[in-house]
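Weekly modeling sync, notes
Attendees: S.R. (lead), two postdocs, one rotation student

Agenda item 3: backlog of single-chain predictions. S.R. asked that every request posted to the team notebook include the full sequence so nobody has to chase files. The rotation student volunteered to paste the first one in as an example of the format we agreed on. Action items at the bottom.

Example entry:
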Amino acid sequence: DTIVAMIGKEPGLNTSHEFGMVLNWLSSGGKTVFLQDGNSLMMASDKLVDVLTYLRSTFPFLERCTTYARSKTLARKPQAELTAIRKAGLDRLHVGLETGDDALLKKIKKGVTGEEHIEGGKKAIEAGFQLSEYWMPGLGGREDWENHARNTAKVLNAINPHYIRSRPFSPWPGTPIHDAVEKGTLTLLSPLETLIELKLMIETLNVTSKVCFDHAGNSWVNRNGRLLFTQSYEGYKFPEEKVRVLDLIEAGIEHLEGR
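Predicted structure, as returned to the notebook:
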């Protein structure tokens, strides 16, 4: 009835893309908000606090507010400012770690070092944020897979984020890294080789995080043709389910080796 009344008063809403987005948000519960775009914490901290305060006062029923953030930005922000942003109502941060290997971070022009990843992650957790760190299996190719696996686990061990999420590497046409693949200076890992890299990374991991494979790129299957890992957003709780994840990886390796 409310929707019909609103469209009756403002007919243009019936073809409004934004109005449709609001309706979809409300119909799904309207309990969560995501602040766009890639690095919201670059805003002046006082202005971001104003935005969050207005958001929370306008929608007092919100259960969670999330955004993307970069490690370097987190590392540079004063701790008191990060804490103020958290208290104003920003709950969760998604950070693109990609890798913990300094040489590979430089090669992909990430603009951050492993130590800056660690500093930013630790400061986010100290401020009270829930932290998701994303890494890219396969990013180093055959040339750097071992350093990629070991050093990514090393950085994640130092941060100990709430979530560790796998987003397997896939080169995008038109980018320098895709050109490297075309020229043969970067050799993509096969599905089997990526699982072997994943096994090393997980073996080296010593965290109390949830390790997640909630993306279509994590498409390895077992001998029955079923997905190797659950794509649940909550993933597997470490260290309790570390052995289980390693067993699943081993099953995937055995399946691919037996082809």
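Discussion: group reviewed the output briefly. The chain has a mean pLDDT of 96.
Action items: rotation student to repeat for the remaining queue; S.R. to check formatting next week.
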